[in-house]
Amino acid sequence: MTDARETADEAAARWKARAESGTFSDADRAALDVWLAASADNRAAWNSYAALDEQLDAALEAELLADLETFAAAEEAPPERPVKRPFLWAGGGAAVAASIAAAFALLPVGTASVVTASYETPIGARDSIALSDGSRITLNSGTAIEVAMSDARRRVTLVRGEALFDVARNRDRPFMVEAGETDISVLGTQFDVAVADTGAQVAVLSGVVRVSLPAALGAEAVLLAGERIVSDHDRDRLGPKTRFDPAEVTDWQTGTARFVEAPLSAVIAELNTYREQHIRLGSDDLAALQVTGTFDLDRPGAAVAALEAALPLRAEAEPDGGILLLAQ
Question: How far apart are CA 314 and CA 221, in angstroms?
Fold first, then answer.
């Protein structure tokens, strides 16, 4: 490969990262057109990235993601650490034993082996799991995951709930997350995924993440740090990329939830993640009330009292232990 060819490949990776950033302007588009018109090498390099799914296999797809990380990420990824512990472990002693359930298996796949494990947190609990590759997964309340590790790939299925992934960089072993019908691919980054029956939300805190809907041809996006996207499984489509405050998706790790002008319905949905007996709204008219504040997720009763104090609401206890919010 000539130096000119390498330059075209590097430039194409930069252009691809910019085009997928969510801030690609008309001026950027014009500049890209000028670059494409400059040489056949430039056009060939660009086309090789634009036709990723049709032209490249999984290994080359991982290489593309590595290039995007190289050119789009602001910081250098930390070197891999040697791992001297078993495949998976959960820290925290008795506290973790009380709040997380795990199961392990060793499955042969062809000539290789896949080590699997399952983890689950009950309602109201949060826990952190370390993987043998140096990655860490923090599970929110009521979350279940299945992990499968091989020499070629690292795969996690988010069965339900929400998890924060801090993935150790390994260019040779892509890290894949399945959240319902949504697939997330990374090589080394930090991101949050929440899954529901209707779709999944992916928020990137560092690095580069590729999100796709395999059932919907062409439904994919590359997210950079500070970007979030929501998938719609019913309609087989991805929503637009949006910016977000990192605290919005990481506060739950410390047992708090912060809302800024959020609809009451969204606040109730979040609080119910931490309650066996749910909070309900007595009228659909209350759903759109705006809420701004920080709530202690470990004290759901205090959160209800705060809503009563801040909004024209009154709370009534229900026979099943739930709470009904009514207009005053």
Answer: 43
